[in-house]
Amino acid sequence: MTKDDFIVVLTGAGISAESGVKTFRDYDGLWENHRIEDVATPEAFERDPVLVWRFYKQRYFQSLEVQPNPGHMALVELEKHFGENFLLVTQNVDGLHTRAGSQRLLEMHGRLLTCFCVCCKANFKMSEVDLNPDIPVCPACSDSLRPDIVWFGEMPYFLDEIYVALTKATVFISIGTSGMVYPASQFIAMARHKKAKTIGVNYDKPENNMYIDEFHQGKSGEILPVLVKQWIEETM
Ligand code: OAD
C-alpha cells in the first residue's frame, strides 16, 4: 500500500459479530430463525406490518445495547490515515461504524436508528417517535411509519457514489460478508476489474473468494487491528 492509494472498504454482518450482533447466514444467524420473505421484503410489510415492525424494533433495541469492537475501531484509524482517499461502505444497519467514529461512511442497506413515513416520506430518528403502537405513526401526517431498511427487491442507497468510488479504488477490502447479496457481492469484482488490489478478512471463505488477492481468515476484531497498524506504518 502507498499513501496515494484510494481505499474502499466493504463490511458486512461479520464485523459486528464480536460486538454480539447476530449475522444472517451463519449457524443460529437471523435467517435461521426468520424467513427473509416474512420480514425483509416490501411485500412482507404490506402483508403483516406488525410482525415486520416487531422484528425491527427488537433489533433496534438490541443495537442500542452493543458496543463497537476493535474491528470497527481499526477502520476509524485507517480513515484518519487516508483521509479523502478512503470510503467505508457497509451493508450493516446496526450503526456501530458511526458510533465507533467512522465519518466517510455509506450505509447502503439503511439503518435501524431511523424510520420514515410510507406516505409523506419524512424521516425520523426512532428515538423521537412513539414506538409503543404495533405500527408506529408518522408525527407529521399520521400515516404509517416503516423501518429505514433496504429490503430485498428495493434499491440500495448511495449506489451512484459507490460505483464512482469503485472506479477510483486502488485497494478494495472486503470484511465479514458472505458475498451472497447482490449488488454488494459484485463490488469486489468491479474494483478488481479496474485493477484494484483486493483483500479479504472473513471467518469463512466468502462466495466471491475467487476475486480476493490476499485473504486473511479469522475474526475481524483480532485481524484488523494488526493489519491496519501494519498498513499505516508502511505508508507513513
Ligand atoms: P452474512 O450473515 O451473510 O455473512 C456474514 C459473514 O461474516 C460470513 O461470511 C461469516 O463467515 C463472517 N463472519 C462471522 N463472524 C465473523 C468475525 N468475527 N469476523 C469476520 N468475519 C466473520 O452477512 P452479510 O454478508 O452482511 O441485508 O449479509 C448481507 C446482507 O444480507 C445483509 O446486509 C442483509 C442480509 O440479508 C438486508 O437485510 C437487506
Order of adjacent strands in the largest pleated sheet: 3-2-1-7-8-9
Relevant CATH superfamily of the largest domain: TPP-binding domain
For the secondary structure, the number of strands is 9
Q: Helicity range of the residues? A: 25-40%
Shape: elongated
Oligomer: single chain
At CATH level 3, the topology of the largest domain is Rossmann fold
What does this structure look like?
- The chain has 2 domains: 143 residues, 3-Layer(aba) Sandwich (Rossmann fold), CATH 3.40.50.1220; 83 residues, SIR2/SIRT2 'Small Domain' (2-Layer Sandwich).
- 36% of the residues lie in helices and 19% in strands.
- It contains 10 helices and 9 strands.
- The strands form 2 sheets. Strands 3-2-1-7-8-9 form a 6-stranded parallel sheet, sandwiched between helices.
- Helix 6 runs parallel beside helix 10.
- The radius of gyration is 18 Å and the shape is elongated.
- The structure holds 2'-O-acetyl adenosine-5-diphosphoribose (OAD).
- 2'-O-acetyl adenosine-5-diphosphoribose binds next to helix 1 and helix 10.
